[in-house]
């Protein structure tokens, strides 16, 4: 396929969770592909850092300090885009507790960000794209946790599984409008969210996760950003309702 299929020049992308990690990598790469990028997060300083990276590479970035659990504020930020072509709903948080130790407030907090925050982003993007007649792309962020159980990951895994169902349902509803909806389900990625805060513990965790992968390594945020770029651009014009799994081969579902 021609390289032009990956060109986002003249298009606008909105990225939640853009202050660090996968969200930052997505914002930078989408900008490198030519998109004007709107970066959203609660971390204002992190957003400034992302915007600086985008601008250093000749791109255009606008920042929005917003909580994705606030549907009104997030909707206003999305509506500020004159035309929206790409939504990358990346914002998420991690929580660990066993099933027996999980409290209602833990589940509510994780579902609020990891599922409802994605829902709010999808709703705002779909409304914008329908209103402008844009045949756009919405990319959600699921997780390898949807393919396997893991101790302590009930809240996180349940929220990400809900994102998968949201993605598939929205894809069926937006297809008639020419809007594609897909999810990325990363494996273990080296980000601030997976940082154990102790170098020895981090090295041990990464060594274990590397052994789990046929490729023998853990992932980097850029690995996921390239998956998002593919789903965002015309190269994936016949792809919707799918779950793309850049996980190093740790999970290989049918």
From TrEMBL:
CDD domains from the UniProt entry: SDR_c (cd05233)
One Pfam family it belongs to: adh_short_C2
Lineage: Bacteria, Bacillati, Actinomycetota, Actinomycetes, Kitasatosporales
Keywords assigned by UniProt, alphabetized: Oxidoreductase
Any one GO molecular function term: oxidoreductase activity
Organism annotation: Streptomyces fructofermentans
Family: Belongs to the short-chain dehydrogenases/reductases (SDR) family.
Name assigned to this protein: 3-oxoacyl-[acyl-carrier-protein] reductase FabG
InterPro entries: NAD(P)-bd_dom_sf, Sc_DH/Rdtase_CS, SDR_fam
Keyword Cell division: no
Classification via PROSITE patterns: ADH_SHORT
């Amino acid at each position: 396929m021609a390289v032009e299929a990956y060109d986002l020049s003249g298009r606008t992308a909105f990225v939640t969770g853009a202050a660090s990690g996968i969200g930052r990598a997505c914002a930078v790469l989408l900008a490198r592909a030519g998109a004007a990028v709107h970066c959203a997060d609660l971390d204002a300083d992190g957003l400034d850092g992302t915007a600086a990276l985008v601008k250093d590479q000749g791109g255009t970035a606008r920042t929005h300090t917003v909580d994705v659990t606030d549907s009104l504020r997030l909707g206003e930020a999305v509506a500020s885009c004159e035309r929206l072509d790409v939504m990358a709903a990346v914002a998420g948080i991690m929580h660990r507790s066993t099933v027996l130790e999980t409290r209602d407030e833990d589940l509510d907090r994780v579902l609020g960000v990891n599922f409802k925050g994605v829902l709010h982003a999808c709703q705002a993007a779909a409304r914008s794209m329908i209103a402008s007649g844009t045949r756009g792309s919405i990319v959600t962020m699921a997780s390898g946790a949807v393919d396997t159980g893991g101790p302590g990951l009930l809240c996180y895994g349940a929220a990400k599984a809900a994102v998968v169902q949201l993605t598939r349902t929205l894809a069926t509803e937006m297809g008639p409008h020419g809007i594609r909806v897909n999810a990325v389900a990363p494996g273990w990625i080296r980000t601030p969210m997976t940082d154990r805060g102790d170098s020895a513990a981090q090295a041990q965790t990464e060594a274990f996760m590397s052994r789990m992968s046929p490729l023998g390594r853990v992932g980097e945020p850029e690995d996921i950003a390239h998956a998002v770029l593919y789903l965002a651009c015309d190269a994936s014009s016949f792809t919707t309702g799918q779950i793309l799994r850049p996980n190093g081969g740790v999970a290989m579902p049918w």
